[in-house]
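Researcher: Let's do a round of design. I'm pasting the structure tokens now; please hold your answer until I've finished.
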């Protein structure tokens, strides 16, 4: 005989909720549960993981002037070699005082300063302003033959790894007097660039009056002119060689056809018709590197 005892209430409950049952299943929370949930949510929101997931903006460029150099520019009426006696009757244009951003691009600043002082085994002194683009900028420091007024390759200069660092291209060519390492407008000969000992030393200075956005993100801004904007204006006003439109069209066609003479011919474009050169250069000591130039947007 089977026992007629009443089964346990636990055994009579269904294992899973049955929609056909009319009974309601309610979730009940105590004050202790609510307190636990609130503290857990606050700790999750304030955890380091949630704050690190938000991308942080890059730090603003540091345009503190850590070093200063000077450059004296002159015109040589009878040019053969700027370092020869033929320029003894040169006409001085004036001096530029350039503030360098040593905290933003230390390698570029160090190399430029070494080229101004001559400690790199080479110097900008007695080298030519190679090209002038009216209303935009002028280029100097081209490497090549010294007897042509070009910079002798500086073999003792450190290799500049900032040329491949995106952070080095943060500053803009927003006004007159911006000094930058010339990369996109570099006209050094290809055989010189392919030399393992090649170092970038060619530089440009914007002449104004407006910005040069075509130079942004392609050349490394490393300083600005603190004194001598009138000298920049004088250099920018020097006439340059401008080919006729017909010559430009023929040159474009020759380049399209792969004629190497097209590039050689373009090397003479925008060259100043007067010989402008750096008659002297060097370093000016900065006692407190806290001086900053006008803001560069």
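Researcher: That's everything. Go ahead.
Model: Designed sequence:
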């Amino acid at each position: 005989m089977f026992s007629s005892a009443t089964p346990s209430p636990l055994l009579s409950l269904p294992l899973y909720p049955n929609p056909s049952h009319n009974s309601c299943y309610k979730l009940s929370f105590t004050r202790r549960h609510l307190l636990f949930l609130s503290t857990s949510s606050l700790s999750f929101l304030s955890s380091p993981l949630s704050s690190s997931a938000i991308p942080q903006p890059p730090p603003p460029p540091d345009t503190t002037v850590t070093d200063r150099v000077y450059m004296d520019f002159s015109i040589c009426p009878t040019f053969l070699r700027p370092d020869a006696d033929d320029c003894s009757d040169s006409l001085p244009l004036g001096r530029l005082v350039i503030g360098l951003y040593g905290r933003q691009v230390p390698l570029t600043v160090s190399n430029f300063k070494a080229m101004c002082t001559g400690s790199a085994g080479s110097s900008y002194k007695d080298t030519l302003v190679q090209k002038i683009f009216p209303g935009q900028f002028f280029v100097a420091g081209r490497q090549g033959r010294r007897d042509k007024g070009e910079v002798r390759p500086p073999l003792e200069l450190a290799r500049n790894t900032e040329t491949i660092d995106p952070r080095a291209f943060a500053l803009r060519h927003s006004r007159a007097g911006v000094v930058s390492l010339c990369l996109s407008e570099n006209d050094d000969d290809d055989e010189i660039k392919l030399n393992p000992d090649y170092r970038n030393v060619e530089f440009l200075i914007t002449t104004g009056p407006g910005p040069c956005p075509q130079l942004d993100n392609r050349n490394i801004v490393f300083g600005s002119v603190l004194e001598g904007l009138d000298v920049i204006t004088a250099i920018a006003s020097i006439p340059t060689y401008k080919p006729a439109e017909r010559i430009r069209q023929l040159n474009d066609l020759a380049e399209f056809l792969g004629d190497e003479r097209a590039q050689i011919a373009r090397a003479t474009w925008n060259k100043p018709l007067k010989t402008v050169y750096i008659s002297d250069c060097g370093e000016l000591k900065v006692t407190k590197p806290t001086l900053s130039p006008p803001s560069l947007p």
